[in-house]
Structure formats: C-alpha cells, structure tokens
Amino acid sequence: MMCALAYIPFLQPMPTVAHWWWLCLIPVCAAISVTWKAVRLETLEHFWRESITMTVHSVLAMAALAAALMVFLRLVIPLLPMS
Amino acid sequence: MTDDFQDRPFNISAAILGWLLPGVGHMKVGEMGRGRLILLGVGGLFLLGVLVGGLDCVDRREDAMWFVAQSGAGAFAFATDFLNTNLLKSGSFGELMPLAVQNGTVMVSSFKSAGPANEVGTLMCGLAGMMNVIAVLDVLHRPCRSCKKDVTE
C-alpha cells in the first residue's frame, strides 16, 4: 500500500502491473490498429470503425488462441501416454 | 508495375521528419489527419509503455537489442533514454542501491523496473518503434498533397 501511494507516474514502474499485465493487450491492439489503419486506408472516412473492428478482431483472436492453448495444456497433454 | 514503382516519389526529408517525430512526415506531405493519427497511435503506445514500465524500460546500454526496435520511435526513444541515464541512473531521482551480481556489486536506482512491468513496458515501446518504421516506409513513397502540381500533371 505504501509502495502504491509513493508511486510517481512515468518515473517508476506501475506497482500492481503483475496482477493485470494481460489487460495491456487491449490498448496495445488499439494503438497498433490506429497506426496501421492510418497508414493503410485510402481515405480516412471510416477510420474509427475500421480501427475498432481491427482491435476487436485482434483481441478476440488472441483470447481464442489463449483458450485453445489452455485446453491443449490442461486436457490434451494429460491424456498423452507417459514414456 | 516497374514503371509505376519508378514514378512513385521518394520523400527522404518527410521520412526523416517522420522518424524523428512520429506522424510529422505525413503532415509534411499534406496528410495532416493521417499524421495526427500516427502520432496518436505511436506516441500513445510509447507513452503507455513508459507509464507501465517507468523510464527504465528504455535503456540504450543495458537493453541494446530492445533499443534497436524502440529507436524506431525517434525522439521519444532517445529522450526517454537520456532521461533514464540522467535522472535515474545518476541518482537524481530515487537513490542508488547496491545490487549483488556475478562479478561483485553494482549500484542501481531504486526506481529500476523489473518483472512484468519492465517486460510489458519494454515491449510496448518496442512495438511503438516498429509501428513508426512502417509509417516512415509509407511516407517515403507517398505522393505529396501539399506540393505544387507538376507541369506533367
């Protein structure tokens, strides 16, 4: 608690990141989508809709990949015969 | 196809500006909106990385390979490294503490980041640098909107 109170943004690392670091995936995907769509789109007419769609697709794809890996690790690997 | 490629412009000054400050290269060729969005994306991601990992997540000497990727963000990366060296490593902020290493003891800042915060912050800054490289490569061959029309057009 004392550590969190003494936190100085930008100078020190965030004190509680270890518990929710995986949530950083969302702003990372959003920032990458904004930059990518700013570069790739011919016109910026539907920019925000395209960026949000790409962000949602990226986050869902990575969540699905994580779920598939968890299923593989918890269900499939224990079924393999031990040598 | 080859002719099309040869006809494309080569905006070296815009590319250098875009590397120094993300998005400014696009602004130079008249793409103001695109430039602002690139600044928002690259700058936002870099600042978020520094917010999560602290100044220590950009370190030219200790994390040289990561700095190669981070340096794509131009002034952001070099300024953060400069501040890391002059504020944290010099002991101006926080205090220097002894840390036992393999060959003895080194002095490190009490603000030095470690663990997930350092990893996530370093990764975010590296991604920001690589995204800016994509923007720089884009502006290198982007037709100039703000330039005067050629006689051939």
Q: What topology, given as strand order, has the largest sheet of chain B? A: 1-2
Distinct helical segment count of chain B: 7
Strand-residue proportion of chain B: 5-15%
Unreliable spans of chain B: none
By DSSP (H or I, 4+ residues per run), the number of helices of chain A equals 4
Helix coverage percent of chain B: 55-70%
CA-based shape of chain A? flat
Low-confidence stretches of chain A: none
Q: What does this protein structure show overall?
A:
- The complex is a heterodimer of chains A (83) and B (153).
- Chain A has helices at residues 2-5, 17-20, 25-40, 47-76.
- Chain A is mainly α and 83 residues long.
- Chain A is built from 4 helices and no strands.
- In chain A, helix 3 crosses helix 4.
- Chain B has 153 residues and is mostly helical.
- Chain B is 59% helix and 8% strand.
- Chain B has 7 helices and 2 strands; from the N terminus they run ααααααββα.
- Chain B has a two-stranded antiparallel sheet with strand order 1-2.
- In chain B, strand 1 (96-101) and strand 2 form a beta hairpin.
- In chain B, helix 2 packs antiparallel against helix 7, helix 4 (32-53) packs antiparallel against helix 7 and helix 5 (64-70) crosses helix 7 (115-140).
- The mean pLDDT of chain B is 88.
- The chains are: A mainly alpha (83), B mainly alpha (153).
- Chain A binds chain B through residues 8-14, 17-18, 21, 24, 27-28, 31-39, 44, 47, and chain B through 26, 33-34, 37-38, 40-42, 44-45, 48, 50-57, 87-88, 93-94, 111, 113-121, 123-124, 127-128, 131-132, 134-135, 138.
